[in-house]
Model the fold of this input.
Amino acid sequence: MPLRNCTINSTSDETIVGNQTSTTLGALILTVVFLLGFPGNLFVIWSILARARKQSVTTLLILNLAIADGSLMALTPFFIVYLVLKNWVIGNVMCKILFYLCLANMYASIHLIMLMSIYRMISVIWPRRISVVTGKRTLMRVLGVVWGLVMIVSIPALIFREVTCKKTSQGLACDPHHEKNRDVVLQYTLELVLGFLLPYGVIVVCYICILRRIRQTKFNRHIHSEKLILAIVVTFCLFWLPYHALNVVQVTWALCPEGTVKETLGKIWRRGRAVTSAVAFISSCANPVLYFFAGKSYIRREGLAFMARLFEGTAFDSSRKSRQNSQNSRDKDKDADVVQLNEKDLEDMDSVTNSSSNIKQMINGK
Done:
């Protein structure tokens, strides 16, 4: 393939595919991820669309999460070929589009998980207001806004990704191409803040509020949906943390003055990018595995519909918790009414007793 219409890479072969060990390991990870994640997410989508009898808020959020993860899994064969050949063979346009879609699905996944956590918090703390956010029209608007924002904040991948020519060997690389260090800082700081710190900050606050509320009540909170969503949150964090840690390294590298430290940081992020990116992909194939273990009690009874019954069970848990909290509030109100009634009865009894005493006195006096 002729090496034309591409930018010469000033860092020689120090690209994300420049290290044999990291590219081989990354290709193996992506292969396993594709074999598990692509059919797994398709099964989740099919279960919700074809087998679920009612689409609750949690079910619709999981459906959107499966669509985001499944789309990401569908892209993995392109990256497997890239890591194996160490050569980008499908042009500059596909270089931009594929990495743009990867970034968009990363943003979509974490923000959908954030929406799940917010919904759980509202259903636990303000059960009487949950009807405000459970309307299908409201939910569809929220999801539309989330996907729209995801598409906008992923634009840096279209701007900075392009095919570069390796300087000392034949082949092409699809790498970020930043004219200035401030471009590096802008892109990866944006990913770090909007793709990790901000949504995870909201998630942590939500679960702190949920735990505080649980401690204040006497209800049994061993609910499938809370455990499942918490497992999704932790899994996403574990697999994306190395990627964002490497973003911090690259931003530090960009801000660091020339010298030994800058050179060392450069080697770390270039050699680690292929592996950490592949590890991040694992989070998209992990969710169907979590659903399988969470719903294994349904398998014998429901067969292929077991996952749909699991998601319906999470919806039942939400409505049951709301009813329990509402019932608790009503019980408190009833108790207060009973107390008031008892006090009134005592007052009436006192008045009757006093009246009887007065009548007796009048009769005796006569």
Notes: The chain has one domain: 7-320. The CA atoms of residues 350 and 356 lie 10 Å apart.
